[in-house]
Amino acid sequence: MKKSIPNLPLYVMLLLVMVIMSILNPSRFLTARNFYSMAYQLPFLAFLSMGQMVPIISGGINLAIVATANFTGITTALLLRWFTGGNAIGASPLIICLSMLGGVIAALAAGALSGFLIGYLRVPDILATLGTMTLLNGINIVLTKGYTLTGFPGALIAIGNGVFLGVPLPFWIFLVIAVLFSILLEHTVFGYSLYMMGSGYTASKFSGINTRRVIVRGYLLSSLFAALTAFVMMGQLNSVKANYAESYLLVSVLACFLGGVDPLGGAGKVSGLVVSVAILQAISTGVNLLRMDPFFILAMWGFIVLAIIAVNHLNGRFRGLLGDLRIRAR
Amino acid sequence: MADFLKLVGIKKSFGGVQALKGIDLAIGQNEILCLVGENGSGKSTLIKIISGDLQPDHGELWIDGRVYKQLRPIDSINLGIRVIYQDFALFPNLTVAENIAYSQLVETNHRVVKWREIREIAEVAADKVHADFDLDELVGNLSVANQQMVAICRALTRSTRFLILDEPTSALTKKEIDHLLEVVRDLQQKGIAVMFVSHKLNEVLAIAERVAVLRDGELIATLEGDEATNERLVHLMSGTTINYSRYEQDTGQGARLLEVKGLSKRNNFQDISFSLRRGEIFGITGLLGSGRTELALALFGMEPADEGTIVIEGQEVTINSVKDAIDAGIGYVPEDRLTQGLVMKKSVGENIVAAIIERLRGQLGLVDSNKWDNTVHDWIENLDIKVAAPDVKAQTLSGGNQQRVVLGKWLASSPKVLILDNATAGIDVAAKSSIHQIIRKMARQGVGIILISDEIPEVVNNCNRIAIMRRGRIVKELETKDVTEQDVQRLVEMTEPRGKEQQMAVSSP
User: Fold this and answer.
1) How far is B366 from chain A (nearest CA, A)?
2) B270 contacts: CB under 8 Å, gap ≥ 6
3) ipTM of the complex as predicted
4) FRET pair for A44, CA 20 to 30 Å: which of A194, B50, B99, B325?
């Protein structure tokens, strides 16, 4: 059988985008400063997309992912205030940890709710997570009264904003998480179950895979990624608000599809997703350098995805949007 | 007598597979024709070409003396051709009258529904087949036989010339089949041609004037009704003569492996008791809807029973989930490979380890790839699965090989009891017989096998004992060494005297 390089079209596209952006931005795109800024921005979208990837592989979707991230940020910010009596910036490490733990628990509660609705009550995933999203958006506004909360301790801000060995700290975290995530998906029973269930729910059930438990765990994991995204966001924006990053919900779905995650579930690799996020990031940075309307970035992303779908569709290879993905969940 | 329909040189292929290789067949104005062939012989494709759902690659259809190169579904309907598929395609939550009148109402294209009209249409149609059901009953509440009558009534609401019945008798009792045949004879008198399509040989043959045999997309033979003996047809359908050897294994000394006592599930099965010894193959047969699959699903934990006990090797076990069943040592090979047996989009290897993935954990809780590879290779080799590499997707395999993968999945879990539910349906004779050999070998190695099948020869020849199920109960248990296939066939189709147990006949739609 012919050995194909997985995700080859994606690498080609990344290179192409890099070249085009370098030509459009001579002496500005290919600079250390620009790469630093990409490494600074990329983890946010990467974590959000990884969180979206898990439910999509299992055959679902998590529309509550951004709301969960905001819920985490707001819970953490409020706990910090509450523990310190208003002076959050000077919080002790213990209080920071406790507050973040509280934020993570809030995220897990949201994931458990979606997972329970989908896994146990068999509510369709779109409906269940739309419900969770609406619920969380409401709670988020009630908690913040619509205001922006700001002023966090340095240690918390460092997660999104710190630098280590000249590279943004979130990028280091991203590298470690990407490797761990990849191992989780391809070398554990949970990862295997996720892929099998996403490819054939009934047959998986008939093989003794505890589909309910896998679904719940999938949404819990998705929410953990949302919490991580929240901490990065808090550091980079130094604030939380009920409706931050709402437009990124569908971008996270789009990043998955671009990265070769099967929209029908059951297939997709972390490496593909990482390249896909890098492409989207390169476009966004390049367009920014051109001083164009930032909304143009969204349009460009949409265009890229439509173009890829069209090309693959014409090739008769619509499934797994980008080429011959051969997934072996092991 | 002029032909109503004449097929000339019909060819059809899908991808590289030629489903029909040039079919010439004619059906007279009010003839009763039986089309038989094994699964995959091209019967469905042929039906779909006649109904206009598929267009032939080559060849012509002559209908009423006119030639059609491209027949659209609407043309076929307007020409009076009606197909009643095995699943009837009825609306279970609408009433009998609504179901019957539906297609005529759609055709007349009224904007407002006239209820009186619905009733009149339904009454006329029900009268044609002398049906005695309540027109206001929901179709979902009817027995399978009555649902079939509703489907026939619906087909008769407009001028029908040619009725095709796809697998019409697979869920009917003897008495119900007799009624169906009566109705069909009556239709023939009214000038309607009928084609029965079946993969099984049964009573339908009795009233067929001609029997057409399809094999591998070719019309192998067309016999006059009285020439069509069972042996001859089996031979023609399969291309080989199946010589079933009986499974003879003395299990009198074998330890009791499984004991089922008073197992019941409301509306599914009642008071089921049987036992299984080590090395024994226990057959369960009965009509579709007799409760045999429901019983299997209860033992497998998919649809747990309401009451009763299951004892494995002397230990009472509680089976409330598939996991419980696997832990207790029970495996289940379903009839439906496509959705229940295999994850088609995944590889052969991934499917083989599906039931034992937790046992492949190694260091750090990660899946041990050596254990994985060994398991997969062992079972591909043991079961002689024809596959280029373990990472080939399951959907690319033939039916027989796919079913071997499912067997491999369960045998890898070293089960004590393996349930096979119509596991050889839809696979060719050679593959079928090799699966029988695997089953026998496993039984000799001490696995207890429960073989559920609606093919009487399959159970009679492969099993030590057979239970016959009817309306959710085991009505008879026999040693196979004392019986013939005909005895069992008779028992399966026997109708119970009308009584309390009639309630059980309602199978969920």
Assistant:
1) 5
2) B264, B472, B473, B504
3) 0.83
4) A194
